[in-house]
Amino acid sequence: MNHPSTSQINVGGATSRLDVLRQGDIVELSSIPVLSELDRCEWVPTPHGVVVLSQTCDLVRLDPPFATVAPLVWLPDDKASPAREGKQPNLVHVSARGDNWFADLRYTASVKKDLLANRGPTRGFTGEANASHFSKLVGRKFSRFAFPDKIVYWLRPLQEVVGSKYSKPNTAEGRLFKKVSEFRVEVTTPWEQVPCGITLITILRADTLQPYGQDLPDLPPTLGDWMRPNGNLRPTDQLATRLDEARDAVTKYWLWQALGESWAGRCKPRDKDLKRLKDHEREAVMAAVLGGEVASDVTTEHEFSMHQYLHSEALDLSHLSPSTPLLNTEQRQPTVN
Fold first, then answer.
1. How high is the pLDDT of residue 297?
2. Which of 4, 139, 143, 272 is the least buried, fewest Cβ under 10 Å from its Cβ?
3. Alpha helices in 107-189 (DSSP H)
4. Up-side HSE of residue 42: CA atoms within 13 Å toward CB?
5. Which of the 8 DSSP states describes residue 57?
């Protein structure tokens, strides 16, 4: 079947042009439908309108006749900052509206394209680079990896630390988290094979570390002694404070390696999480990771390889963090179809 690149739909004798629609557009709709149970629909209020999620190439075609939308929501500064950095897959920044506005991907609905086109959509962002970034973030929400339950017990402590520290730039660790482009989890054995060999990869922004390639600098003896008094790695906050103050490239390199190792050391099941499990379940969780510890690798965006990308999964924050109430669900108005 051939599809036109731009389309016109006749709605009640009027013509609606679909080629005005773009992914990321903001449309003024007051509510969207969500199926709550069989044959029953609830209307979720969207007082700020909705954001179009469907790809532009699908929007301008006659088929399919529907587009996917999500509510436009506002977040306070402490929640908006990590969301703008792409740390929470449920939220995608809508930059044209301002720093605090996001598409909430937890609620999505199908809406007729002609309804969206006839309501004068406005652009949610400008520029091809922003369009590509928006599209990738939307896609990530629906393609992210579901870690095995046993492994989640190992990863949750670090995720909660990142979530609590990221919005606190008054701490050294909070400032350093902002230099992290992404955390990824690499597995050296198949996920279904127990125990799994796991490495936490800390990917730093490109300008964070001086590239050394294969010619790594020697660890200064005095720095090595300071990092591991009595052979044990110093606490995370001490490493972060010294790294935050460091100016020498070699010192920063080794402190970043130590901090990445310290973060990986956070990846251990906690008693408060395990106490709710049965004895055999706790034993299975503790036996899930090879050697009883998560290894560490610290690299940069420039040095992170395609091989590592294909054999690792992104570690996000949102699904292990408390849900932020973005919509007033008490205002939903149920209707029977």
1. 96
2. 272
3. 113-117, 128-143, 149-165, 172-177
4. 14
5. H
The residue written with tokens 């020498």 in the block is 248
Q: Which of 51-65, 196-210, 237-251, 282-296 has the lowest mean pLDDT?
A: 51-65
Which of the 8 DSSP states describes residue 23? T
Residues near 198 by beta carbon (within 8 Å), at least 6 away in sequence: 151, 154, 185, 186, 187, 188, 267, 289, 290, 294, 295
State both tokens at 93.
């920044």
What is the distance in angstroms between the CA of the first residue and the CA of the last residue of the chain?
33
Measured at the alpha carbon of residue 21, what is the angle toward residues 20 and 27, in degrees to the nearest 5? 110
Q: Exposure of 144 by Cβ count < 10 A (0-12 exposed, 13-18 middle, 19+ buried)? A: middle
* Burial class of 244 by CB neighbour count within 10 A (0 to 12, 13 to 18, 19+): middle
- Which one, of 138, 161, 109, 108, lies nearest residue 23 by Cα? 138
Q: Smallest Cα–Cα separation from 178: which of 209, 208, 221, 152?
A: 208
Confidence band, pLDDT 50/70/90 cuts, at residue 330: very low
**37 phi and psi angles, rounded to 5 deg:** -160, 175
Output phi, psi for 254, to 5 deg.
-75, -30
Q: Where are the beta strands (DSSP E) in 24-90?
A: 26-27, 31-37, 40-45, 50-52, 66-74
pLDDT category at 233 given cuts 50, 70, 90 is very high
Q: Are 203 and 274 in contact (CB under 8 A)?
A: no
